[in-house]
């Protein structure tokens, strides 16, 4: 494809975001008028009547969900969910009533609604419902304390962030008109949290079974089995367990192990407390990681796979100092943190693959000073279908200082970063910029300049279908980098173009992505098959060569973004991709991909531990 064609396609898809009627408030999209509701009912009834005609498909009729159904009391419930908290602000919380609901057939806004379909009843019978005390441990408010509407809304967001909860509603319940106390009702609708993942190739197959809400405690567990087809004994096994929010401290404990027949393994033991909310005052982590793996090194037109073994000890702590609140509900924090990371190589590759002693022990000491202003905006139809999604907005400015001890030499480190995310009348915009360098022998080396921007349009509609236009730009530039081939960037897979893989590397790259995403009004067993169209263009350059004179790598894809309304698993894309050229593979290549895609992940202002700017 020529550069003119890329420009034309980009302008065309940018125009579609403004061509159709747009909804500036996607939360209102789920409100349909009576004519639309009747059309939906007629469609679903026609589908069900058709399936009931034939014995083979008769049982499938009940699997089609009717998204137009509304409870007779929906107006009353909608009114209650929009209660003005002002009349209850400051009243003492007398009692907190927590109700948890199974995932199928229930509604957190209408407690009189119960499952009617057999498939829903059977599914709920197999589900371990979240325990009330699991929900209570996530709340930021408590009994016998004054009610704060901000803490109620933030508690809703924290609960929605849990993998095992799909939707949640927290509302005050009046005791009497003259009472100085108030009751709080918390209603949480579960997700189905057990799922299977697998993959099969001509060389190996694997299966993974995960549970994200073990016994309703919110704990996570998985087991993994991998079989290589060279022999029955050639296999690998692993497991992992995460105990969340131990003793209501918001500290998580995580342990995992994997080992295979080649004595490759991974061992992890971590205790961690995140800045799980802007109101969190402290966070920290202590972890030990031991790994033995094959490293892919491309050198002089050959690929090598030497075994490496590493041991990592990692500890960090941070404290947030609240600053003055503004009138728009944003939370302002000044955060100070420090980190120590010890990387030890117990096994290294041969000398000819360890150029510049690249694989050698490291002692990293870092401190970070950050000014954060953060808030959340609720929206729908971004990555989920109709459920509320909390989009982080605000800005952050941080300074990172420290030292790196490597090859018996101590090198000062300096890093800067800025992040911004906001909603405007035309949609969502975010920007992230980072830069970092080491001072080595009075010269600035191992420098990284990195940036990423994301835009998505307001929702626009055609009949019952909804659409968004996504754009993403990312660039990475390295200066005075190590001569080792691993210290390079590529546009392979998640580092640039999904589905693309080659042995071409550089010191800088620019990737442009555009995706037109639709949201289908139809579902089957909760599954949504949402068509999309995607274009990726990547530029890969080297030092001392004009950037845009380098080769262009690209992909055009059409497919389905597959999600489920009830099941807790990461959505994935099934697509047919066209690659005009992949070096060392050929021209005009078609591939079918089945991947989990977080290519358009949004900016988050959840505080991250101090780190050097990642060069990839």
Q: Rough shape?
A: globular
Q: Decide which structural class fits the backbone.
A: mainly beta
How much of the sequence lies in strands comes to over 45%
List the uncertain runs: 16-21, 66-81
- Tell me the span between the first and last alpha carbons: 26 Å
Radius of gyration: 26 Å
User: Helix tally?
Assistant: 6
> Percent of residues in helical segments?
10-25%
Number of strands: 27
CATH class of the largest domain: Mainly Beta
Number of domains: 3
Largest sheet: 22 strands, antiparallel
Task: List the SSEs and their pairings.
Elements: H1 3-19, E1 22-23, H2 34-52, H3 74-81, E2 92-101, H4 118-125, H5 132-136, H6 149-161, E3 165-174, E4 181-190, E5 194-200, E6 204-214, E7 219-228, E8 235-243, E9 252-260, E10 265-273, E11 282-294, E12 297-299, E13 302-304, E14 307-322, E15 331-347, E16 362-379, E17 389-406, E18 409-424, E19 427-440, E20 443-457, E21 459-462, E22 465-479, E23 508-519, E24 527-541, E25 552-564, E26 572-582, E27 586-596
Parallel strand pairs: 2-4
Antiparallel strand pairs: 1-21, 3-4, 5-6, 6-7, 7-8, 8-9, 9-10, 10-11, 11-14, 12-13, 14-15, 15-16, 16-17, 17-18, 18-19, 19-20, 20-22, 21-22, 22-23, 23-24, 24-25, 25-26, 26-27
Description:
This is POTRA domain-containing protein. It comes from Capnocytophaga felis. The protein has 616 residues and is mainly beta. It folds into 3 domains: 33-67; 70-190, Ubiquitin-like (UB roll) (Roll), CATH 3.10.20.310; 263-596, Beta Barrel (Porin), CATH 2.40.160. The protein has helices at 3-19, 34-52, 74-81, 118-125, 132-136, 149-161, and strands at 22-23, 92-101, 165-174, 181-190, 194-200, 204-214, 219-228, 235-243, 252-260, 265-273, 282-294, 297-299, 302-304, 307-322, 331-347, 362-379, 389-406, 409-424, 427-440, 443-457, 459-462, 465-479, 508-519, 527-541, 552-564, 572-582, 586-596. The longest helix is centred in the first third of the chain and has 19 residues, at 34-52.
